[in-house]
Amino acid sequence: MTTGGQAAVAALQHALAAENSAVYGYGVAGAHLTGARRATAVRNWVAHENARDTLAAMLAARGARPVAAAVAYELPFAVHGAAAAVALAAVLEDRLSAAYLGLVGLTGPALREFGAQGVRTAALRAAAWRGSTLAFPGLTVPAPRAPGPASQGSGSPAPSSPAPGSPTPSHPG
Amino acid sequence: MAREATRRRVLTATAVTLPLLAAGCKGIAALGPPPKAAPDVAVARDAMAVETQLIAAYDAVLAALPALAGTLHPLLAQHHDHLAQLRARLIIPAGHPLPAASPGAKARRGPPVPTAPAAALGQLRAAEDTAARALLAHLTAAPPSLAQLLASISASEATHALILGTAARHT
Question: Which of B12, B65, B75, B121 gives B168 a disulfide partner, CB atoms 3.0 to 4.6 angstroms apart?
Fold first, then answer.
């Protein structure tokens, strides 16, 4: 395998690992959400499963063995309520932005385009959860932060969280 | 003895270099035309022009509809961050003004600002979408780190469009 091929495989594996943890994380987040936010979490969860399969296929096509998902992942903070669940979803998407930006750093045009689409999709989902935007998605990733003491009590509204009532990320599948 | 020889060599080198420097521009010109800008310079310049235009569009809306400041200021601040990052990638030679500083940038006026806030937000949203696409047009031509910066800024602009669309629905 060429050096470029090895770099591509490493970047794809990194993106796959981020998708694997997103699938797990959305499972946790979705359990603490209701209504429109739960529906969005479920939609995103399915989208991350699809993205995971796409990346696994791309790796297999390069003769690489896709990294396996872990049975469980350590979450950046405890998730006991809706506010923390929304914050977790935003963190998962921030990490995906960074992982897909790694593909943009490769030399192949197709992988660059693919990576740029991945950054865009993840940034849109993160912004929808957060209700605010980042200047450099994927380049400067904010530190994961639990949303204060509001994470107690399932389904409680988040006074300090700018989470939109009905996040509808405009992403293609 | 050896040290003296070294010093002599240094002195000789200086003697050769000095007249060239003293000749100033003429001396440099004698070396031939300055090297052409690398392709990534053109890419970064284009991206800076995109940002400059967006900043002008935000300024125009803010001037006409100051009540939108709460929504627009955070987004505008990020455009200034984008421009600063792109500018940091370039060493601008003397005599080549930055797109932001050029008088032509001001002269190129955008469409008039709609009086209805929702329409003005919609106009900015469209401008953000256009900018997000324009930044990706040079994705394959750029060196890796600039490509990553362009992809990141483009994604940021897509999220701006999302926020503007949400705000337009709520005004």
Answer: B121
In the stretch 110-149 of chain B, residues with CB closer than 8 A to chain A read: 132, 136, 139-140, 144-145, 147-149
Residue ranges per domain, chain A?
A: 3-151
CB-CB neighbours of A104 under 10 Å = 30
Range list of H helices, A32-151: 35-61, 82-104, 109-130
What is the biggest distance separating any 2 CA atoms in chain B, rounded to whole angstroms?
A: 85
Residues 81-100, chain B, touching A (beta carbon < 8 A): 81-82, 85
Distance CA B121, CA B71 (A): 9
CATH superfamily of A3-151: Ferritin, core subunit, four-helix bundle (1.20.1260.10)
- Among A66, A87, A78, A83, CA closest to A18: A66
pTM: 0.79
Say if the ipTM goes beyond 0.85: no
Q: 């994470």: which residue's tokens?
A: A151
Distance of CA B116 to the CA centre of its chain: 31
- Token code pair at residue B3: 């040290």
